[in-house]
Design goal:
By secondary structure, the protein is mainly α. The chain is built from 8 helices and no strands.
Length: 158
């Protein structure tokens, strides 16, 4: 519980800083409007009180951008809360690895899988050859063993 709260607060602080900076630049660049400045809001209030009317598409886009500042901030915060940060932190290393693989990996020799089939055939041939070889039967050794066992048994009877 505390870990989730800590993660949410850290993500919220970092996301808020980045989001406010980006939206400030965007709104200032597009409409010369600083939404953190009370003077700019006073200008809009004065315009509205003196019968200002929203006429053009640019005015509608300006109004829409002002209305979407908070909902997009919340959606972005929620989205970033559910991201895997280890993946984000390791992104530069992974990007470099992909670059090296694409640069040098295409020229390297590859192992063809069809070579595996020929090695399996050789293994089967070796197996058949070893099964064909039968052990030599030692008939004379069996005769010697039988003679020794007979002598031992005859000595024991005496």
């Amino acid at each position: 519980m505390i870990g989730k709260l800590f993660k949410a607060s850290v993500v919220g602080i970092i996301w808020s800083y980045i989001y406010i900076f980006a939206t400030e630049l965007l709104l200032y660049y597009l409409w010369n409007f600083d939404y953190l400045s009370p003077q700019d809001w006073q200008t809009i209030n004065t315009f509205w009180e003196h019968g200002g009317v929203i006429k053009t598409g640019k005015d509608y886009l300006f109004l829409l951008s002002l209305l979407l500042i908070v909902p997009l901030w919340i959606v972005g915060w929620k989205y970033l809360y559910h991201k895997n940060y280890l993946e984000i932190l390791l992104w530069p290393i992974n990007a470099y690895n992909r670059y090296i693989i694409n640069r040098y990996g295409n020229e390297s020799k590859r192992i063809l899988l069809k070579n595996i089939g020929t090695s399996m055939k050789i293994e089967e041939e070796m197996k058949q050859k070893t099964e064909a070889i039968k052990p030599i039967e030692w008939k004379e050794a069996d005769k010697v063993r039988q003679a020794v066992s007979e002598k031992i048994s005859s000595n024991q009877e005496q």
